[in-house]
Recover the amino acids of this structure.
């Protein structure tokens, strides 16, 4: 009975490790899909792509300005249509 308990505990531990590994691999696969989408977008457009995080927008409703953070340098982007 004791051997069965130890074996069950070992299998639970192994199962937990495998679940963690599966989660990490699924996350990497999703990231690869997102990067593939970005690469294909870059090939379809004639403009130079600029990937940046939006860090703010204008508070004025008459203005449509967004602020981007690209490589730790904040840029103000002109009004969009």
């Amino acid at each position: 009975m004791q051997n069965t308990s130890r074996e069950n505990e070992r299998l639970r531990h192994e199962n937990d490790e495998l679940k963690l590994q599966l989660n990490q691999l699924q996350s990497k696969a999703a990231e690869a899909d997102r990067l593939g989408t970005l690469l294909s977008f870059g090939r379809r457009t004639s403009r130079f792509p600029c990937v940046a995080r939006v860090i703010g927008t204008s508070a004025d409703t008459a203005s449509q300005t967004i602020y981007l953070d690209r490589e730790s340098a904040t840029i103000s982007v002109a009004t969009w249509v």
Q: What stands out?
A: Residues 2-44 form the longest helix (43 residues).
